[in-house]
Amino acid sequence: MTRPISLLRYFLLIFFIVSASTYVVVAQRDTITNYYETEQIKLPKGLRAETGGLDFMPDGRLVACFHLGEVMTYNPKTKVWKKFAEGLHDPLGVVAVSNSEILVMQRPELTRIKDTNGDGIADVYETVTDDFGMSGNYHEFAFGPLKDRDGNYFIALNVASNGAGIRPEIRGTYDSLSREGRMYSCVPYRGWVMKYNVKTQKLEPYASGFRSPNGLGFDAKGRLYVSDNQGDWRGTSPLYHVEKGKFYGHVASLIWEKDFPRIKPLSLPVEKLDSMRTREAIAFPHTEIAHSVTQPLLDNTGGKFGPFTGQMFIGEMDYPRLVRLLFEEINGQMQGACVAFGDGTGLLKGNNRLVFDKNGDLWVGHNDHGWVGDEGLSRIHWKGKVPLDIMAMNLSSDGFDLTFSLPVDAAVASNPSLYKFQRYYYKYHRPYGSPKTDIADVAVKEVKVSPDGKKVSIKLAELKAGYVYDLKMGELKTPNGQLLMNRAIYYTLNQLRK
Amino acid sequence: MRSVLIFLMFCIATCTFAQSDTTITLQAITGLQYDLARFAVKPSQKVTIVFKNVDDMAHNLVFTQPGKRLSVVETVIKMGDKAQATNYVPASTEVLAASKILIPNTTETFSFVAPSQEGVYPYVCTYPGHGYVMYGAMYVTTKALPPLSKDSNIPPTRQIDTPVEIVSPHPFPLEYPLIYRTFMPDCGPAAIAVAINPNHSYCFDAGKCYLRYAWTGGFVDNTAHWKGNGNALAAVKGIIYFKDKVTYPLRIGKADKLPEVHFKGYSLQKRLPVFSYTLDGIAVKETLKSLIDDSGLSRTFSFGKPTQQTLYFVTQTDDGIVYKSSTGKWTNGVLTIPKGTTQLTLTMKRQAAAHSVHHH
């Protein structure tokens, strides 16, 4: 309990020093509402808006699917909601193919849904693939689809929860090797990311080791990212850069690996499992920034949503915020930092699904099903002014370089006491979640501000791989008094620069 | 050879009285009721009752003279402890026919000749305490029955023509036919519940590609499944009248070989689903419609091209259904569908709603 209090004192102290030394009087505090605004979209009467999927049709209509099986369209111009399809089983993702055709991931299958007679209501529900197992356990959610450049679709399959059993009748081959443990995989390919190959029309196993992968997205270079949730084998919520054939840590799904020996994955030593897994590109420190991250989405608006084009956002369930992702490639591996986005814009909780419209507004579908959250649909609009925010956090040989969206006041930014670093890690183990482990403060040795005022280079006393570097900053600002919108950032340091 | 002979003898034996007899399957179900609140037979017709107790309590089934239901029930109460020895059936001219007391999950088949006098003959469970609510009406008549809602011979809870209008849980009104993909009892996890109309529904297994069961009296209640973690199953609202207990009904080439099935989805024709699936690579489309008065189902199977092998449709002869087919031959409940078939319509009529079992 001592840490937040001392931190507050520290911030107050900095504030007074800064105010006194520069004689700046801020008439009205610079807040995020100067840059972004959030609007709640009016919902049709009778809709339980537990949003499972969002996309835009080519004609500009939003298409959204909801927990009770409805697929609705919304015309932003006329503000009219219409039914497109109904009766689906817990649909958790939608992709618009045309103005009359969509793909929906529902519990039992990936379905192509079409309106073939032009009356605006779907009349064809084609099974694209149902080539995966279902034990009937409630936790076996199915996520996706995400369309790649070649037209293939990625989907992700949850494992089952030992909070419930399986049904007398199942789909797929039963295997009991992974029935132990908090989460289990007893039919193929629970706990996997799968790729539906459009050429062969086959669903191919792609990568294993997932628990509750409620979010798939590509970055600007087409790299696949999949999120997961804190739990067993998940010390805190992670985001993985997913590549074919790799294992991402949750052990239950290992039994469906080709040539995996007939042994219980839980019987393997943690050190062995740790050596087999690929670490998350970004760990989201629990309660610091997120509790349950959702869908990652690339800002491909070309600047219509502000200065973050080319970066990715990810939704968050428990806090009224999104999280912005700052990746970099180190020794051929993706790792990076996360920073809050949208705090104070009036965004709700339960930020489950994200999509940009043609105008560059970000639409957020909310969900509170069986979890903390909210219901509804929001639209975040950039008002046109650039806020002071962190654009990049890059690992250097002896610390980090921070790049800002605007030049910072060098007199303020060059003060080493403005930057407070901690490092810790989350255990990779069978129990649910992990405390911050091996917490230590990291001393700031030197701070340099670039001549253009946009880059601050920080030299640290020590850099250690396998840790999250947690940076909390004092009140940085621009020479004209614009304030730094987000002062906490978390860098997942898997690898040091070689 | 021997089994063929036995079968032929059986056929000869049954065919002699097949024109005039009827078989009624009647179940004691949960909630102190029979699945059928009433049925009709013709005067002097031989009636065979297949009485199944699928409840978790003991029940019997006693047919009485017109208007004598309460009199019989009260006579049994007066008999006290002695009644148990006679299965709670008094030696009385008021009793027309009766089963024994059936413990749960047992069946008794018994026959009697329907009275020559037209009239409403009650049936009732005389197990102490049950007789005031657990009853129904056997109509001995050749005429049409009154509407359910105006029939004072059946329990008040059953005097409904259509279920109560359900408030739509969606941002649009409910329209029928209505489909929910949901978790259904007694089905694989990929299930489709279909209400053909507000009263008549069925469960199609989208994993195993066949009709699992059908019921009347309502559709499904998803409330429990839709809230919380989703572990709860949808609840069937109404009374199941048919359950397919054959592992898979359609067979290709050999009657005893199960085909490999793949579900391909469905299209909607005026909201009614037409299911697509493959059986050993053969493309099949199946449409299920309700027979008049919801007395059963008509199932139309269309094949992508004329069948190149003999197909079989396997039924269980005691499933309470009278099957008829637009093509093929029935043998012991197995329909042989000749090569070259492109379409087949199968009607499945509830026996209780039929006046004759004769179809073989």
What is the strand and helix layout of this fold?
The complex is a heterodimer of chains A (498) and B (360).
Chain A (H helix, E strand, L loop, with lengths): L1 H21 L13 E5 L10 E6 L5 E5 L4 E5 L4 E6 L7 E6 L2 E6 L2 E6 L9 E6 L12 E6 L5 E5 L2 E2 L21 E2 L8 E5 L4 E6 L8 E3 L5 E4 L9 E6 L27 H7 L5 E3 L8 E6 L13 E5 L5 E9 L2 E9 L9 E6 L5 E5 L9 E7 L7 E6 L3 E6 L5 H4 L5 E8 L9 E7 L1 E6 L5 E6 L6 E7 L14 E6 L5
Antiparallel strand pairs in A: 1-26, 2-3, 3-4, 4-5, 6-7, 7-8, 8-9, 10-11, 11-14, 12-13, 14-15, 16-17, 17-18, 18-19, 20-21, 21-22, 22-23, 23-34, 24-25, 25-26, 27-28, 28-32, 29-30, 29-33, 31-32, 33-34
Chain B lengths: L1 H14 L6 E8 L3 E2 L3 E4 L4 E8 L8 E3 L4 H11 L15 E4 L7 E8 L5 E6 L10 E6 L37 E5 L8 E7 L2 E6 L4 E7 L3 E2 L1 H4 L8 E2 L2 E5 L6 E3 L8 E9 L2 E8 L2 E9 L5 E8 L7 E4 L6 E5 L3 E3 L2 E4 L5 E8 L10
- CA radius of gyration of chain A is 23 Å
User: What's the average pLDDT of chain B?
Assistant: 89
Q: Total number of β-strand segments of chain B?
A: 26
Q: What are the low-pLDDT stretches of chain A, counting only 5+ consecutive residues below 50?
A: 1-5, 15-26
Measured as a percent range, the helix fraction of chain B is under 10%
Category by helix and strand content of chain A? mainly beta
Number of domains of chain B: 2
Q: Enter the CATH topology name of one domain in chain A.
A: Immunoglobulin-like
CATH uppermost class of one domain in chain A? Mainly Beta
Q: Can you give a write-up of this model?
A:
The complex is a heterodimer of chains A (498) and B (360). Chain A has a domain of 135 residues: Immunoglobulin-like, CATH 2.60.40.1220. In chain A, 50% of the residues are buried. Chain A is built from three helices and 34 strands. In chain A, the strands form eight sheets. Chain A has an eight-stranded antiparallel beta sheet with strand order 20-21-22-23-34-33-29-30, with no helix packed on it. Chain A has a four-stranded antiparallel beta sheet with strand order 1-26-25-24, with no helix packed on it. In chain A, strands 2-3-4-5 form a four-stranded antiparallel beta sheet, with no helix packed on it. Chain A has 498 residues and is mainly beta. By secondary structure, chain B is mainly beta. Chain B folds into two domains: 136 residues, Immunoglobulin-like, CATH 2.60.40; 176 residues. In chain B, the strands form six sheets. Chain B has a six-stranded antiparallel beta sheet with strand order 18-19-20-21-26-23, with no helix packed on it. The longest helix of chain B has 14 residues. Chain B is globular. Classes of the chains: A mainly beta (498), B mainly beta (360). The interface between A and B is large, with 46 and 31 residues. β9 of chain A pairs antiparallel with β18 of chain B, so a sheet runs across the interface.
